Amino acid sequence: MFGNDPTVVAGTFRRLLDGQFDEVGFAILDRAPGAVRATFESLFARSDCARTVKRCGCSA
């Protein structure tokens, strides 16, 4: 995950988790605001997993 292509990581999670759970939660450290999170949102939007996106105002 850390330093890997977010498209590959999100795609792998989606492929492995799709159809297994009603809801999956991810904690995403996004140093470039929105870039990694947007990738996960985009890939999971086409998934059977429930997709509730919440943003924490936490800072690293």
Helix percentage: 25-40%
Question: Radius of gyration over alpha carbons?
Answer: 11 Å
What's the β-strand tally?
Answer: 0
Mean pLDDT: 77
The rounded distance between the terminal residues' Cα atoms is: 17 Å
Proportion of β residues? under 5%
SSE succession: HH
Judged by helices, strands and strand pairing, the structural class is mainly alpha
Task: Give start-end ranges of low-pLDDT stretches.
Answer: none
In DSSP terms, counting alpha (H) and pi (I) runs of 4 or more, how many helices?
Answer: 2
Shape: globular
Largest sheet: none
Give a written overview of the molecule.
The structure is a single chain. This protein starts with 5 loop residues before the first helix and ends in a 15-residue tail after the last helix. The longest helix has 12 residues, at 6-17. The protein has 60 residues and is an all-alpha fold. It is built from 2 helices and no strands. Helices cover 38% and strands 0% of the residues.
Which tags fit this structure?
60 residues, single chain, 2 helices, 38% helix, mainly alpha
Write a concise synopsis of the structure shown:
This protein is mostly helical.
Describe the secondary structure blueprint for this structure:
Elements (H helix, E strand, L loop, with lengths): L5 H12 L17 H11 L15
